[in-house]
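Work package 3, deliverable 3.1, input record:
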Amino acid sequence: MESLIPVGLTDLQGVYPALNLAVAGIVILLLDAFFPMRSKLLSAWITLIALHLSFTCGLHRLTSGMDETFFHGAVRMDPFTHAFTVIICLASTLAVLSAPKYLRLRDCHYAEYYALILFSVSGMLLFSAAEELIMLFLALETMSIPVYCLVAFTRDNEYSTEASMKYFVMGAFATGFMVYGVALLYGSAGSGYFADLPRGAASSPGLFYSGMTLVLIGFLFKIAAVPFNMWTPDAYEGAPTPVTTFMAEAVKAAPFSGMIKLLIVAFGFSQAVHLWMPAFIGIAILTMVVGNMVALVQTDMKRMLGYSSIAHSGYILVGIVASVKLNSSEALASVLYYLFIYVLMNAGAFGILILFSHKNKDTNAIDDLVGLGRERPWAAAFMGIYTLSLTGIPPLGGFFGKFYIFSYAIKAGLTPLVIVAILTSVMSAFYYLKIIVAMYFREPSDPQHPAAFSYEGYSVFLIAMLCFTAFGVIYFGIFPKTPLTLARLAAASLIPAP
Amino acid sequence: MITLQEYLTVAALLFSLGLLIVLFRNNAISILMGIELMLNAANINFVAFSQSLGGLAGQVFALFVIVAAAAEAAVAIAIIVLMYQNLGTTDVEKAKNLNG
Amino acid sequence: MLSSYLPILFQLVLAGGFACALLVLTHVLGPRRSTAVKLSPFECGVDILDEAHHRFSVKFYLVAMLFILFDIEAIFFYPWAVIYRDFLSEGLFLLIEMGAFCGVLVAGFIYIWRKGVLEWA
């Protein structure tokens, strides 16, 4: 018989960041049910406040170094979790800030949007805390199901619907793999706790390793690694742009957190590492090459950023492989730093697209940006910062993110991997620079009637989001000390110093 | 007496069936059924392991999977209805506005 | 241990055999006089108006889906009910926990109610 102590209030306090968001989501739904007229902007504010509370709680816990387990060990709130709480709350805040005006332009500014975001984020926060397979699965589902709805949020838009269908099929497929894998892992170890899993590898290796493979395949689907990436470009293109922003940052970072924890805590012993490490190296190479190559030929910005986000998954995989190989928390810290910067620059790039979206039409094609530099110099400058950072040009954040990861990968003896990574980074410069060339150096095809760039998507929220991300990309690039120190603190809880 | 091995075999068969359905059927509702089949194959595993290992964790896990599957199905069917309204078909192969 | 199931098997065979025997007997012994009225799908009552293969209104789907969701949630009452007695000594905490769970369900119910999902026509 398992332990018979019921969970108590302390457990609930332990998961406060996630609980707070879930409660806020329910409050929004009830508010909307009773005061449908005035609930929209109010919900946006409630969402921002709730996210802010979770953010500060995460930050506070991170700096105070809290490391405790709750729910009989199913949830471990360690600095690694807190760091992801901070990153994910930040990413979601950016996505929420970009939403209200865009949704109003599409005539679908409903309070449910905010409730769904909050439910999804509450799942994500548990993702990085889970140290038990049931918890991991529940966090995954709580995260994913609201996102399926969000992708279809512009209800009468056929692209949105199609994207949602494709995303659902692939997402649920991945869940199926993962649950089956979890069942096998449970069967091999007789327990769902991560710490007990290595026992299963000794007692029934067949079950354990097939379970491990299936679970990791499920994760690779979620982070859009090649060859499990087919849903990404379609889902990113068809989803409403604020939702794409949300998917490209928060929904991307969260599975990474779960996967890193699982890889290190449960599959971190040497026999398992010998099995998954070569596979991960191969997948990282494939992901970087395919992501960047296909992005080269895209003409739609959202699609291009979709492929670029696949490519970035590849870089992050390189960082994960390096940190496990070196067994170094410093290397893992570089992964966290990279994710943090990635969230900022990606959110900014999507924010510019939202700024110029029209009623019932997006401004997504790269050709639509021709002449932006002359017409709207500020917006073009911001876009320039994000794209240069995504390319990895110093002194912007994106450069240092890649730099740290690659240098640790070299230290780990993964030189071939780094060569591929650098070559594909150079390749990525071509398609990122295509945006800059379009903005500044290309003449409009019809000089008499240059494209009118009206700030139809303008809102104070969005401007705040753009300013913050642009500032962050520059500031945390030049002064990476604060985020890096925090990231080291977080990583050290997962990989203790030898 | 049915052995653990037999349960696992049935579950594996069900899982592969679900997998094949998802991969080769085009109708969205068939795909949904395939996914449900995969989840329920995992459930058989959970309950079988729980029986052979003792302890309740596996059974509790199966309960959670059932609930999650129901939630997933609810969302999926909503999306399928939406798809029928907007695209006039429930065939995922015919929905090709996004060139993927 | 299988032998303890023998009476059940015996009963099954007996019941099945009896049912089959009756069916065969009525078939063989009973008189058959069919008329046009008897052969129509509904022997009594009103004539059929149209076919059975209708498209259902989406409304039905909505209610069915909500039913499934609320129905499935009841699953969580089972493990709770099974262990409830063991934790009576812990005070009311377990009861409050289930109260919170029900509270969330009720919140969902109020939401769909106010949104007019339960209104017909």
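Residues 24 and 78 of chain B are 22 Å apart (CA to CA).
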